[in-house]
UniProtKB/TrEMBL annotation:
UniProt superkingdom: Bacteria
Protein name: Methyltransferase
Lineage: Bacteria, Bacillati, Bacillota, Clostridia, Eubacteriales
Alphabetized SUPFAM superfamilies for the sequence: S-adenosyl-L-methionine-dependent methyltransferases (SSF53335)
Domain Methyltransferase type stretches: 50-149
Any GO MF annotation of the entry: S-adenosylmethionine-dependent methyltransferase activity
Pathway: Lipid metabolism; Phospholipid metabolism
UniProt keyword Transferase, yes or no: yes
Keywords associated with the record: Methyltransferase, Transferase
InterPro entries xref list: Methyltransf_11, SAM-dependent_MTases_sf
GO biological process, one term: methylation
Amino acid sequence: MSELARRLNQCKKPVGDQGKVVVDDMNERHYELTGWGLDKIKIDKAYKMLDIGCGGGRTVNRLSKAAEEGEVYGIDYSSDCVRWASEYNKELIKEGRVHISEASVEKLPFEDNKFDVVTAVETIYFWPNVEENIKEVNRVLKKGGKFIIINEIYDDDKFRERNNEFAKNSNMKIYSPEKLKSLLKNAGYLNVEMEIKEENNWICYVSEK
């Protein structure tokens, strides 16, 4: 297995010492990207929010600061990530404002209509059945709630060589802007808005239930 393939596999499901290195790197490297995406919505101080694929826990921490009277939940299907994200947010967990658990987007362990906002930062490439999975996200959103997808890669001619190399060395699925927008609409979301930062190959979707 190549070094690139090993890293991409760790991005999918970080585990062990190498996974910790990758998670710490993502906490730093995705900070600007995440901020760019989150600027597309208004977060009320009492919101209840979910971060899917919470990794090292920095996005959860960031959301909790925006919703200072609300609650933020993070899930990851890597038990190591659950441990690392919990350590990163240990004070907020003690306060009862953050909750981290091991779970998959295939079956979210939450009741219907629970969250005001659900975020997915740099994770949707690895979702096993994306259309069914985004329907599952829809289930746990409140009416009028927002689902935010933030990716640093989308299918584009300018980045095709790099992106093809990523796809070849992993089982990640890189979507075209219109393809993912169509999947969101087909899954029942309303007012699907999309913004691209072309020079970075960044993309953000804000979809409303």
